[in-house]
Design goal:
The chain has helices at about 40-50, 140-155, 165-170, 180-190, and strands at about 10-20, 25-35, 60-70, 85, 95-105, 110-120, 130, 135. It has about 190 residues and is of the alpha+beta class. The chain is elongated, with a radius of gyration of 22 Å. It binds zinc ion. Zinc ion binds near residues 93, 124 and 127.
């Protein structure tokens, strides 16, 4: 079972209702990331058949499966295969979040992602809407070059390999100049010291 949204793949919510006769006694939702080689219907049927709810002792056991793209209304969703970033159409920031519901899986003894809210929220300016984000390709070359230039200004060429540095500076790409980003980094380091 895959429960993570995978950028660059097509993500589908697979909802399985388990019925005894006509009465629904359990519902499962899986988020599946699909590549072109995968058969989503076969995968969903496999999940249903392997479920603990698919128990032969349940009278008149049957199930129904519905499959929906996770972002069916988002016209900006780019084709699968490219590396992507969500971008706020209001302020241009990349820190877009969605809320999710996790449920406890008693069989696997783990939390699993049962649902993802449709509303997308920009953590920078507070804009929120269903399908808010514009999906843009990560400009790898420009992005990496940006990190390298910021590191150069700071006089520490190995910084782009530093995770903390990447987390702080990556969202600044296309928003600040390299000099401003370097100043932000110095500020964050000063605050920590
Ligand atoms: Zn914003």
């Amino acid at each position: 079972m895959s429960t993570n949204l995978v950028p660059g793949a097509r993500n589908y919510a697979v909802r399985i209702e388990y019925l005894s006769g006509t009465e629904i006694f359990a519902v499962e939702t899986h988020i599946l990331a699909i590549t072109d080689r995968d058969d989503i219907r076969a995968m969903a049927s496999g999940l249903a058949a392997e479920s603990t709810y698919a128990n032969d002792r349940i009278p008149d056991l049957n199930w129904s499966i519905t499959i929906d793209p996770v972002d069916p209304d988002d016209p900006d969703t780019p084709p699968p295969g490219s590396a992507l970033m969500p971008k706020c159409p209001v302020c241009g920031h990349h820190d877009i979040t969605r809320e999710g519901t996790v449920r406890w899986d008693a069989v696997n003894q783990n939390w699993y992602l049962a649902a993802i809210a449709e509303i997308e929220l920009c953590e920078n300016c507070g804009a929120e809407d269903k399908g808010l984000a514009q999906w843009v390709s990560i400009d790898e070359t420009g992005h990496d070059q940006f990190l390298r230039l910021v590191a150069q200004i700071l006089g520490e060429d190995s910084l782009p390999q530093d995770l903390t540095f990447r987390l702080l500076c990556s969202p600044l790409f296309n928003r600040l100049t390299v000099e401003q980003a370097a100043a932000e980094w110095r500020l964050s380091q000063g605050a920590r010291a």
